């Protein structure tokens, strides 16, 4: 579901965070002049709290993974995170439910004085971790394109991404990243420009707990996956005709696909789809269904207490959560 976010926070004074028992801000100074930078940063459970403060204006931001924040707050770590340093990096390879999201946003409200309405989201990442029966590394290796954008293959074998102007499409091998036993693929979208999401009603943190908005995010996620061009590694090439075996070599090559103009892709896509339908396990369709089912499962964790959660969270006397002042995570 929701993972990384960056938002500006309004309605607070710098002292609201500087005096907060959870936050320990650091300042930076110029090595040449010794002048103190007006940027102050505090790290807390995979979230950064940033204050830009000068004589004329004070701007305040939060960014980081709300999923990792929840796990750290609740002492949930990855199987391969054994040391304090490793655990402090956070874990987002498990399920992050709607109720977990509400819990986490409530912490921001209760412990850091954040009025969820008085925020402006600048970046947002959302997706799902899917347990499946295929080989995640093979799926990642065979990602071709998304709308004529190639999936980059960085040095790390744990993820691939395709970059557009407003958003990235990302796929991760979470099992490889975190030492998990099951095959786990994460498919997510990271919006670096919010125009498209603003249009569907997502502007501030409070908008993220709207069931309708989350259903809209699900629809976008499924649409983007359906648009991904992927070669199905389960195609039984020995069962193909000689002609189709020759064509398969092209279908595996992202540069071959890029040689076509976008309005000329229908015919080669249909040719590939016919082979895929007759000779493969149809991984793309199966993963699409798993993405949909996983999102629905995360939403099933909506408590009856959340029927009017927007008014609950913004009530001045909300006491949904009762945390100790200090809590050790590792």
Q: Which residues sit in consecutive blocks of at least 5 with pLDDT less than 50?
A: 303-330
Count up the domains. Answer: 1
Please tell me how large the radius of gyration is.
23 Å
Count of DSSP helices?
13
Cross-sheet strand order for the largest sheet = 2-3-4-5-1-6-11-10-9
Structural class: alpha+beta
* β-strand number: 12
**Intertermini distance:** 25 Å
Mean pLDDT: 89
Q: What percentage of residues falls in helices of 4 or more residues? A: 25-40%
Order of helices and strands: EHEEEEHHHEHEEEEHEHHEHHHHH
Portion in strands: 15-25%
Question: Largest sheet, described in full?
Answer: 9 strands, antiparallel
What form results from the Cα inertia axes? elongated
In short:
The protein is an alpha+beta fold and 330 residues long. The chain has helices at residues 14-18, 66-73, 84-88, 98-112, 136-141, 174-178, 195-199, 211-227, 242-251, 254-258, 266-279, 283-299, 309-314; strands at residues 2-9, 26-29, 36-44, 47-53, 58-65, 119-132, 143-146, 149-150, 159-163, 167-173, 183-191, 228-230.
Write the layout of secondary structure elements.
Layout: E1 2-9, H1 14-18, E2 26-29, E3 36-44, E4 47-53, E5 58-65, H2 66-73, H3 84-88, H4 98-112, E6 119-132, H5 136-141, E7 143-146, E8 149-150, E9 159-163, E10 167-173, H6 174-178, E11 183-191, H7 195-199, H8 211-227, E12 228-230, H9 242-251, H10 254-258, H11 266-279, H12 283-299, H13 309-314
Antiparallel strand pairs: 1-5, 1-6, 2-3, 3-4, 4-5, 6-11, 7-8, 7-12, 9-10, 10-11
């Amino acid at each position: 579901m929701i993972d990384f976010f960056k938002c500006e926070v309004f309605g607070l004074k710098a002292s609201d965070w500087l005096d907060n028992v959870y936050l320990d801000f650091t300042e930076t100074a110029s090595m040449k002049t010794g002048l103190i930078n007006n940027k102050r940063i505090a790290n807390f459970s995979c979230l950064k709290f940033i204050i830009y403060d000068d004589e004329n204006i004070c701007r305040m931001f939060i960014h980081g993974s709300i999923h990792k924040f929840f796990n750290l707050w609740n002492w949930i770590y990855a199987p391969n995170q054994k040391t304090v340093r490793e655990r402090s990096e956070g874990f987002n390879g498990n399920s992050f439910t709607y109720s977990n999201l509400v819990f986490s946003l409530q912490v921001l409200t209760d412990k850091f004085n954040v009025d969820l309405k008085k925020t402006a989201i600048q970046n947002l990442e959302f997706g799902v971790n899917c347990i499946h029966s295929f080989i995640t590394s093979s799926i990642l290796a065979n990602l071709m394109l998304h709308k004529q954008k190639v999936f980059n293959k960085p040095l790390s074998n744990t993820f691939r991404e395709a970059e557009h102007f407003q958003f990235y499409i990302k796929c991760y091998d979470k099992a490889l990243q975190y030492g998990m036993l099951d095959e786990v693929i994460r498919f997510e979208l990271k919006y670096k420009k919010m125009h498209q999401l603003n249009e569907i009603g997502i502007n501030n943190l409070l908008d993220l707990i709207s069931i309708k908005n989350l259903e809209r995010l699900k629809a976008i996620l499924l649409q983007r996956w359906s648009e991904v061009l992927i070669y199905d590694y389960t195609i039984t090439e020995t069962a193909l005709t000689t002609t189709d075996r020759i064509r398969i070599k092209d279908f595996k090559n992202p540069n071959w696909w890029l040689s076509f103009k976008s309005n000329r892709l229908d015919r080669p896509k249909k040719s590939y789809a016919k082979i895929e339908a007759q000779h493969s396990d149809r991984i793309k369709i199966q993963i699409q269904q798993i993405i949909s089912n996983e999102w629905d499962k995360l939403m099933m964790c909506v408590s009856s207490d959340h029927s009017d959660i927007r008014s609950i969270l913004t009530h001045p006397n909300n006491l949904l959560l009762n945390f100790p002042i200090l809590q050790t995570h590792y």
